[in-house]
């Protein structure tokens, strides 16, 4: 079964490129994230290779010289898999596999593998399996090369091609079957969401590992799995939360990531409907992460892809307890102030001053500023509630007047 297949990466090598679009610093950040993904999937990164190249080699992604270097290292260091930060075309994957004779995994394959490991409910598993088969379909030729290598090429072309065709048909049938299953599930989920009645719906969204589930647990006294790995949450949890006397529904769902594989966005349609149908988004950000601004951009991009960019949103900057910044000595007149030197106060000014959006700074772990959080959410939810039910206006006093 595909869904259960968890690849034992063990010792892995990472490969990334430095180009016009991503300078050395960006490339390092991306590889840091890829290393975290590898670790989440159960692998240990032994070495990173980078190459300055603007247009990836159409055959092998990186250049021939660099590939020889990698090959040498793979052979003499017992490397089980080579992981690329970018999506490889099926033929690139095949070519590189032939050269290095070990598992070649790209970013998409790695994320799919983590999702497969993490999917607990049959609902999540169906969604992941669908995405995996869609990823597999154009790559079936690669599997065939494998056979070709074992059996030798001459005289094998005829039966070989039939074999690929059979494989393709099996995978296509499987995709069709999973689509049907998803349709049924989608309908059930839509009914379930419909049954939740007229309560205002609030969704926690954000990059993976920012603390959405931790915040959910603190606010709703629920017990959602949270840990310091990527994609701890795949299944959506919905809780009824009451602040003061105002009830609403809060949902915690799958985290986003840069370049989230399109197959996953498609097959997680039903999970993402939770976001699509929410009245209010709480966009949680890990402000202690050096790339948090990129994370915000990635999340906004995905929100755009699922037609949810224009929803009322509260920006929740979490992990203020872990925030650190560089300092400039008073007598240092050379160093220029950059964002790396920003204090929390600087960030507050930037965000609160510049955007029309609501902004909060909290620590879910230390329960810092949770009262601000509650007041803000109460006020916004009340606003939505009384717009919808004007005759309920008198029910909800100002947050300060709640006893
Ligand atoms: N220092 C600090 N760590 C936090 C805070 N909130 C959460 N964390 C930690 O961040 C890690 C990720 O937390 P989760 O709640 O699982 O994050 P998530 O956004 O639900 O992640 P996914 O489900 O993987 O998308 C855990 O190790 C938490 O303990 C915080 O306020 N401060
Ligand atoms: Mg979570």
From TrEMBL:
Subcellular location: Cytoplasm
SUPFAM superfamilies: P-loop containing nucleoside triphosphate hydrolases
Signal peptide residues on this chain, from the entry's feature table: none
Cofactor requirement: Mg(2+)
PANTHER family reported in the protein's UniProt record: GTP-BINDING PROTEIN 6-RELATED (PTHR10229:SF0), GTP-BINDING PROTEIN HFLX (PTHR10229)
NCBIfam families, A to Z: GTP_HflX (TIGR03156), small_GTP (TIGR00231)
Name under which the protein is recorded: GTPase HflX
Organism placement in taxonomy: Bacteria, Pseudomonadati, Bacteroidota, Flavobacteriia, Flavobacteriales
